[in-house]
Amino acid sequence: MIIRPRRLRANQKIRDLVRETVLTKNDLIMPLFIDENLNAGDKKEIPSMPNQYRFSIDGVVEECKEIADLGIPAVILFGIPRYKDEIASSAYDKNGVIQKSIRKIKDELGDELLIIADTCLCEYTSHGHCGLIKDNKVLNDETLEILSKIALSYAESGVDVVAPSDMMDGRVGRIRSVLEENDYKDVAIMSYAAKYASSFYGPFRDAAESSPKSSIKDRKTYQMDYGNSREALREIELDINEGADMVLVKPALPYLDILKMAKENFNVPVGGYCVSGEYSMIEAAAQNGWLNREEAIMEALYCIKRAGADFIITYWAKEVANLL
Ligand SMILES: [Zn+2]
Fold first, then answer.
1. Cα(118) to centroid of ligand 1, in Å?
2. Which residue numbers belong to the known binding site for Mg(2+)?
3. For 5-aminolevulinate 1, which residues are the binding ones (predicted)?
4. N or C: the chain end with fewer CB closer than 10 Å?
């Protein structure tokens, strides 16, 4: 007797019936860039990310309404401030670009949309690093002080979730205790627990103006080495023990093994960040007619989910919500 697995692939109905992984709108988080230098109503396309924009503070409120109407549950916000300095002071300014945006979005949309705020220094420092710098070194413990100030000011503005993306040691614990002390017990932490030093972030740096500009040219002393996987488990374990409610693996597609390990080893929700380079790679190939854009997008996101992601941060969130 021949075993015939093809019987279950004979038509779309039966394929749908036996499909193991399902992608829904509820899995999606849309990243948004807010540029304090833009006037109300202006938006600026990001050259290396076709169809992705930087919004003004007013513009992002309108964009969030559209996103909520599409049934997408959450956005993650990144800010481009008017003013940068050595210590990222505009990141924890009560009237900073993200703080203002959170208040405006919450005023308009209330609980219709979850607001996650990326919590880091790199978009706000003149040197472009995720930590403070002294004597050609990225300082760890001194940076925690700034990170917890940023997280607290986002909490004061009404954020639902803070997402520390800096990869300093001990930051989740520090942020958690500052939030508890100030009675923001309900603000969740989504930590970028396994964040790799990746060349796939290239277009994002275009979008967020966050390339390292100091004599320290890369982020390899704090982001992870792409040759390592067990180290990711250690990073995730530390963040969970320090109080992370959810963890992220970033990037996603070249790191599906890490997503799978994270899902199998821990009992907290795991997310995959499908980063700018993954987006631009497919967009560029599609522009050249080298692959079917919509099919490639769906396949990419399904594979991230299949590998273990409970949710996906993706620049295609709006488009995929329309297709689903
Ligand atoms: Zn950063």
1. 9
2. 235
3. 205, 219
4. N
Q: Where are the alpha helices (DSSP H) in 183-275?
A: 202-208, 230-242, 256-265
pLDDT at 83: 95
CATH for 5-323 is 3.20.20.70
Residue 137 annotated among the catalytic residues of the structure: no
Q: Which long-range contacts (CB under 8 A, 24 or more apart) does 144-149 make?
A: 144/168, 144/170, 144/171, 144/174, 146/87, 146/88, 146/91, 146/92, 146/121, 147/119, 147/120, 147/121, 147/171, 147/174, 147/175, 148/174, 148/175, 148/178, 149/92
User: What is the per-residue pLDDT across 184-198, written as a single tens digit (0 to 9) for each?
Assistant: 999 999 999 999 999
If you average pLDDT over residues 26-30, what whole number do you get? 98
213 classed as catalytic? no
Domain boundaries, the chain: 5-323
Query: Residue 71: which residues within 8 A CB-CB, separation 6 or more?
Result: 25, 26, 321
